[in-house]
Design brief:
The protein is of the alpha+beta class and 355 residues long. It is built from six helices and twelve strands. The strands form two sheets. A ten-stranded antiparallel β-sheet has the order 1-2-5-6-7-8-12-11-10-9, sandwiched between helices. Helix 1 crosses helix 2. The longest helix has 31 residues. The N and C termini lie far apart (55 Å).
Length: 355
């Protein structure tokens, strides 16, 4: 796909049911789109939501905002409002573990998304924290390796039946890819960061990292596996079907399931979560055990001698991702309803045919 080009995509298969205007912008650390930077535009709204969440944790009442958040355009598109309810929850680090079958309350607000994001600072991949603002994640990756090339995917959330989005429709960064190397003698590394879109704060809701080493140039298999366990704790489950240990290949495939307090599930709960399809590739949910979990999958592949040639780590929070998607869906429904009312009002002003 050519860079600096604008492609109209109809993403009917996504749960958001949106028309996405996508721009792939090559290697630009500022992450701006023309005169509007969605990350910068939402930064103040994110800070405000974080302050509200902190006040709640301290038992203080948050002041009512005087106007719409900074992630809203100055002249909002029809229906550019937030709707839905905010589910109550204890402060990070104090919530009890929900058992299988308990159903968390539905969440559909940018403030709830921000609260959940702030509670995920305990988990990171190479320093990129789940729930961190996208701009901060880019700074971390740039500091880690200045050779990363960044490619943001810009999207205009808009309902399918809403027609062409207006010029002032809010833009968001849907994905941010950071890549270095192209394989071969230099190897390669790719970060794929998925972000919450309007009207949510632009926080990271999923991280995927893939490293490929040239033959016999990677680290020790045993040291890397030990490092994963030291960083994230003992794994909740081993994927035995993807684990090998012979003269040709050595692999390690493991899953970590973190509860609402950031504690790794083990024993029966860990095994139960491993049997449930609630991994990073599954649509977010707020139902049952999966709806409470933050999930991390890791894979390490090595030669029979134990020299690593590939590492993959993927993580996401189901509560955070569900809240972000539900908030955007509520926004799209509201836009669609407002457009329908506007069309009906306009039609009532037109003269009908002679009967």
């Amino acid at each position: 796909m050519q860079r600096n080009s604008l492609i109209l995509l109809v993403l009917a298969s996504l749960p958001l049911r949106i028309i996405a205007v996508t721009a792939l912008i090559a290697a630009h650390p500022a992450l701006h789109a023309q005169n509007q930077n969605p990350i910068t535009a939402a930064r103040e709204a994110f800070k405000k939501a974080m302050e509200d969440a902190k006040r709640q944790a301290q038992g203080q009442a948050a002041p009512e905002p005087a106007q719409a958040g900074a992630d809203q355009p100055a002249q909002p598109a029809p229906g550019a409002t937030q709707s839905g309810t905010r589910s109550p929850a204890a402060a990070p680090g104090t919530a009890s573990v929900r058992q299988t079958g308990d159903v968390p309350a539905a969440a559909a607000s940018a403030k709830e998304t921000a609260r959940l994001a702030a509670a995920l600072a305990y988990i990171d991949v190479a320093g990129v924290k789940l729930g961190t603002p996208l701009a901060e994640a880019q700074k971390v990756l740039t500091a880690t390796n200045p050779s990363f090339r960044f490619t943001p995917q810009i999207e205009i959330p808009w309902p399918l039946r809403g027609g062409q989005p207006p010029p002032n429709a809010p833009r968001s960064v849907l994905n941010l890819n950071a890549q270095r190397g192209t394989g071969g003698a230099d190897g390669s590394e790719l970060f794929e960061l998925a972000a919450a879109v309007h009207p949510n704060p632009p926080v990271v809701i999923q991280i995927a990292r893939n490293i490929n080493y040239p033959n016999n140039s990677g680290p020790s298999f045993d040291n890397l596996v030990a490092g994963l366990r030291k960083k994230y704790g003992p794994e909740s489950a081993i994927d035995t079907a993807a684990t090998m240990n012979d003269n040709s290949f050595r692999t390690f495939a493991a899953k970590w399931f973190f509860d609402e307090r950031g504690q790794v599930l083990s024993g029966n709960l860990g095994a139960q979560a491993a049997r449930t399809p609630c991994g990073p590739g599954i649509q977010p949910t707020n139902v049952g055990l999966c709806g409470t979990l933050t999930i991390l999958h890791a894979y390490v592949g090595a030669s029979g001698a134990g020299v690593v040639n590939q590492v993959r780590v993927t993580t996401k929070s189901n509560p955070l991702e569900f809240s972000a998607h539900a908030t955007t869906q509520a926004y799209l429904r509201q836009v669609e309803q407002d457009l329908a009312r506007q069309q009906l009002q306009e039609s009532s002003q037109r003269q009908g045919p002679k009967l």
